[in-house]
Amino acid sequence: MSETIEVFVNGHKTSLYRGMQVKHALIAFDQSLYFAALSGEIRVEDEHGFAVGLEGALSEGARLFTISLRG
After folding, report:
1. Mean per-residue pLDDT, 21-50
2. What is the pTM of this model?
């Protein structure tokens, strides 16, 4: 079993170590997305449109999307 997994943030592939969380995927892709999520400017959703928390677990091939909450 590989030590890393591939996840997708807004369609872009990112490699992370197993056991990392949604917040780590955001930071690896674009740290400003992590800060925007912390401040409530964006929401993170999975490929089915369900909101996911920053502490959420990731699995191989997970697809995350950031949704702007600004009007």
Report:
1. 98
2. 0.93
